[in-house]
Target: UDP-glucose 4-epimerase
Amino acid sequence: MTSATHSPKILVTGGAGFIGSHTVVALVEAGFEPVIVDDLSNSLASVLNGLRAILGRDVPFYQANCNDRAAMQAIFEREALTGVIHFAAYKAVGESVAKPLDYYQNNLGSLLLLLDLMNEYKVHNLVFSSSCTVYGQPEHLPVTEETPRLPAQSPYGNTKAIGEDMIRDAVRANLPIKALALRYFNPIGAHPSAEIGELPLGVPANLVPFITQTAAGMRASLTVYGDDYNTPDGTCVRDYIHVVDLAEAHVQALRKLSETNADASYDIINIGTGRGETVLNVIKTFEEATGVSVNYSIGPRRPGDVEQVYADVSKSNRVLNWHTTHSLAEALRDAWRWQQKIGAKVAAS
Model:
């Protein structure tokens, strides 16, 4: 690894979050120097302690909101950045329906500011955190990058689609930015050290932390929403990717951008495993991997849930030279190890 003083500096917005913190680790291990900016509105400062425990040193950190022009400009002025990975965004689907303007202001305003500052300070490489939500319920599976985007089911999902369009249009207008939008499927797991992991504030909205909290006795029962879908066991199907694999994809994306000779470029890439897993199979795999049973019941379908979606990952394999290396069982074991470590630190609400 090159020394930190000569490593390419990468601004990681939302770097104290679940995916962001794991990407910070992957960046350091690959010889980059991440610089975190996070307002801690949806993460905790204790994540920085976890990063220090894994890396053996502190990572530069700025507590700031990515919509704060003065604060962001000061960071660009101080740090000789070579790239940006943009994670920071509000992400609660239900809240976005209730507060759409907040989501448009925060998620799109921050991207607009970043593009402006990248242009001003000649920072050319951008990796954008997008989502498979832009596909909705596709007609054909698995979804490729050519699968048509469908109207978003929530303002949150719409901010991802509009964010992609903003970057595409900026590149078409010859803004000197090389960008990759990574469409994530369902990140799960935790760092094998159990020093960092998914830390939902309040009641989890995602399946795996709800499984681990139920297994730990923090939740009485897990509700499986619907068992009458047209899937192998009637429950919804998703593509669950270990967050460590997802983090590695960002490193490969940065490498790809640095190798791109064009002054401006834009592309989108699916980041998943290429395999669909039912909700019941995830529960079963967790129980087999950990030896811990999960109390669950079948409830009615949840409005807005997509029946099934999983990725065609041939483009990520080919373009990024990236492949997943962690199994579903490994991801669930790591998530459980993390849950055991944080224990009572996660407050039920």
